């Protein structure tokens, strides 16, 4: 049985990471395991920022955004010699299992650690982008979506008052999940996502048709993976006569108190990760599919297929935008 595990968060922060840390730590302690925290992700592992974690460390953090363990990028971790140093920092403490909470890049590091250094690693998908294959939802996505919806409601007040078309750029990296679901849930009037063709002529046509029907403002959700919203704004101005503005929501989308959904999801995933380590499993990721916590090999995150079919929701969003 594994007696010592470590927990780290890596990559971009996401609301709910603290709930996952808390659940994993408390579950492991209840099973008699000794738990270590790694500060600043893989960079902290490389720099030996590893410390014993007790119940007090994770007390009162379930409702806090960000990550108690801190996070950082670590380009050095792509080099095998630096991964070897990081792995040795775990092994000298007798740590046999590692829980990595993060996104795609974090998973690549976890996969290499597992294969190269015989450390049992379990990945938990923590990213607002919802771009990890093998899970319907990632930790932080729901909270981020609600942050966007709050912003859209405020922006609509100005768009309505000034009869403007406002393009709202949201995060998501190369995925359009946030923009798509924000458009549907926020009553958006247009949508640009990287998974679908987005000719500027179609958007211009939609806006002109809305004006014909007496609609005097537009909120268009733009996924950052489509391109710079300022460039889209300039191109759109050449095709319509209405006033156009653009807004980049930026990093405000990452912060804030995690939603109830994200807290429960993170808690279930954190507990499951410890159960897997207890059973001697490693090189796997935790996910949720059809409301059931499931597992896949970590490599499924980049080799597998996403189960989300964008087209039905995309077509629904465009229908409702008329």
Automatic annotation (TrEMBL):
It holds the Pfam family PFK. SUPFAM superfamilies: Phosphofructokinase (SSF53784). The keyword Nucleus does not apply. GO terms for biological process: canonical glycolysis; fructose 1,6-bisphosphate metabolic process; fructose 6-phosphate metabolic process. Mg(2+) binds at residue 104. It catalyses: beta-D-fructose 6-phosphate + ATP = beta-D-fructose 1,6-bisphosphate + ADP + H(+). It is found in: Cytoplasm. ATP binds at residues 12, 73-74, 103-106. Residues 4-277 form the Phosphofructokinase domain. It is an enzyme of class 2 (transferase). Substrate binds at residues 127-129, 164, 171-173, 224, 245, 251-254. InterPro entries: ATP_PFK (IPR022953), ATP_PFK_prok-type (IPR012003), PFKA_ATP_prok (IPR012828), Phosphofructokinase_CS (IPR015912), Phosphofructokinase_dom (IPR000023), PKF_sf (IPR035966). Its cofactor is Mg(2+). Pathway: Carbohydrate degradation; glycolysis; D-glyceraldehyde 3-phosphate and glycerone phosphate from D-glucose: step 3/4. The active site is at 129 (proton acceptor). One of its GO terms (cellular component) is 6-phosphofructokinase complex. Its main location: cytoplasm. Allosterically activated by ADP and other diphosphonucleosides, and allosterically inhibited by phosphoenolpyruvate. Catalyzes the phosphorylation of D-fructose 6-phosphate to fructose 1,6-bisphosphate by ATP, the first committing step of glycolysis. Belongs to the phosphofructokinase type A (PFKA) family. ATP-dependent PFK group I subfamily. Prokaryotic clade 'B1' sub-subfamily. Homotetramer. This is ATP-dependent 6-phosphofructokinase. It comes from Fusobacterium hominis. The lineage of its organism: Bacteria, Fusobacteriati, Fusobacteriota, Fusobacteriia, Fusobacteriales.
């Amino acid at each position: 049985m594994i007696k010592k595990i470590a927990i780290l968060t890596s990559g971009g922060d996401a609301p709910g990471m603290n709930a996952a840390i808390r659940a994993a730590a408390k579950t492991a302690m209840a099973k008699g395991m000794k738990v270590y925290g790694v500060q600043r992700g893989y960079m902290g592992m490389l720099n030996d920022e590893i410390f014993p974690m007790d119940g007090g460390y994770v007390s009162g953090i379930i409702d806090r955004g960000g990550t108690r363990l801190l996070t950082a990028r670590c380009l050095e971790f792509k080099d095998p010699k630096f991964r070897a140093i990081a792995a040795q920092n775990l092994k000298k403490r007798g740590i046999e299992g590692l829980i990595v909470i993060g996104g795609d890049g974090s998973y690549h590091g976890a996969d290499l650690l597992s294969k190269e250094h015989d450390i049992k690693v379990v990945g938990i998908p923590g990213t607002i982008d919802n771009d990890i294959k093998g899970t319907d939802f990632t930790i932080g996505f729901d909270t981020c979506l609600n942050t966007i919806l709050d912003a859209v409601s405020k922006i609509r007040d100005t768009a309505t008052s000034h009869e403007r078309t406002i393009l709202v750029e949201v995060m998501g990296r190369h995925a359009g999940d946030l923009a798509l679901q924000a458009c549907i849930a926020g009553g958006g009037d247009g949508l640009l996502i990287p998974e679908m063709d987005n000719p500027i002529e179609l958007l211009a046509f939609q806006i002109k048709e809305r004006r014909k029907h007496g609609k005097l403002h537009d909120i268009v959700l733009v996924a950052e993976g489509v391109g710079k919203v300022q460039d889209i704004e300039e191109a759109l101005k050449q095709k319509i006569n209405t006033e156009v503005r653009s807004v980049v929501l930026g990093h405000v989308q990452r912060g804030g108190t995690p939603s109830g959904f994200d807290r429960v999801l993170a808690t279930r995933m954190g507990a499951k990760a410890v159960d897997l380590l207890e059973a001697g499993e490693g090189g796997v990721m935790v996910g949720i599919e059809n409301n059931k916590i499931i597992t896949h090999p970590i490599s499924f995150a980049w080799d597998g297929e996403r189960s989300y079919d964008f087209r039905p929701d995309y077509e629904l969003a465009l229908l409702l935008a008329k």
